[in-house]
Design brief:
Layout lengths: L3 H6 L7 E2 L2 E2 L1 E2 L10 H14 L9 H21 L7 E4 L2 H12 L8 E5 L8 H10 L2 E5 L9 H7 L4 E7 L11 H10 L3 E5 L11 H4 L3 E5 L10 E5 L1 H6 L10 E4 L4 E3 L13 H17 L1 H20 L4 E4 L8 E6 L4 H10 L2 E2 L1 E3 L4 H7 L4 E5 L6 H18 L1
Parallel strand pairs: 3-15, 5-6, 5-7, 7-8, 8-9
Antiparallel strand pairs: 1-2, 4-10, 9-10, 11-12, 13-14, 14-17, 16-17
Bound molecules: pyridoxal-5'-phosphate.
Cofactor: pyridoxal 5'-phosphate
Keywords: Lyase, Pyridoxal phosphate, Transferase
Protein name: Cysteine desulfurase
Amino acid sequence: MINIQKIRADFPILSQKVNGKSLVYFDNAATSQKPQVVIDAEANYYKEINANIHRGVHTLSQLATDAYERSRLKIQQHINAKFSHEVLFTSGTTHGINLVANGFSSFLKPGDEVMVSALEHHSNIVPWQMLCEKTGAKLVVIPMNEIGELILSEYERLLSEKTKIVTVNHISNALGTINPIKLMINKAHKVGAAVLIDGAQAVPHLKPDVQELNCDFYVFSGHKICGPTGTGILYGKEEWLNKLPPYQGGGEMIATVTFEKTTYAELPHKFEAGTPNIAGGIVLGTAIDYLNEIGFENIAAYEHELLEYGTKQLLEIEGLKIYGTSSQKTSVISFTVEGIHPYDIGTIIDKLGIAVRTGHHCAQPIMDFYQIPGTLRASFAFYNTKEEIDALVVAIKKAQQMLT
Ligand SMILES: *Cc1c(COP(=O)(O)O)cnc(C)c1O
């Protein structure tokens, strides 16, 4: 069970006024708000143990290194990775995907295929397009249907020995659809393709088990799970991370350097060149502890309640249409209101203190599929309430009156 009063008290920003009105924050799929423990942990790091890691013999450096490595272990446990060196710190989902896409340029030849889905965020499309341009491989797209699900029969038809990697999101940021990734991973492995899962929208709502999924790579961002911006995780199976070439060269990723030859450090350091976001990496662990204390079963159950309530209330509004109506979805509602541009509604309800996303949500191909310029997107987190949804409905009706 969620104790909503207690939880809301953990998030200082939620009691703010915006434009003179109580903030209703429904842009959680873009970034989450941060609880006080996370804010404090960031400050305490700089107050108490700030030092560079993995380098010094001095006490602070060791304290910082220990805290950073403890956080890695925590995240390993959280996602159930087999080894802690399969857990790489990154600056976010985008960084993780680019690291893998860049590495695959050494494996691909013209005629090979890279498969993405119609539901992807731009950051899980563009790096693969760049890879295809570089290698002569072909980008193949798994199509979607009207309710925002991937068409699995087409997926199976498109898979072949030419497919070298399939890269798909666990949950769509624009529509909330939960993709059947376990099944998709199995099918890809049957033709010998690797699979990268973009888990950016999944980790706020569930605890992924990378061994159970048997994915080759799983990436996510810290800032969408109550952690700091500029943090993220790339999980990769040991055998893949050993095969992939390093992404960036620099300090910390080497074993020995001479002008004739450099040898690379062991995992995970091979992929962690330079001084990382040390505070961020440590505090990401704090954020994950915070969420685990609430419990992901509790989070998922409560958010599902918000999704059902929100869907029902929003559909009472005349002319409102929801995009993405799969039975398998998280607490994301993408919608339009007939005859009004999403941006105009977004602007008016912002004046009423309500934050939603308007636009294409970094997923233009989905908007093209529906032949719309964009949607309004209300994405709910475990700290939102039904009263806030009521406020959203009232605000949209007000905007509707003003604009029609
Ligand atoms: C947010 C998001 C990304 C990009 O994450 P960054 O933190 O901007 O790197 C990628 N994919 C999905 C599904 C997302 O929701």
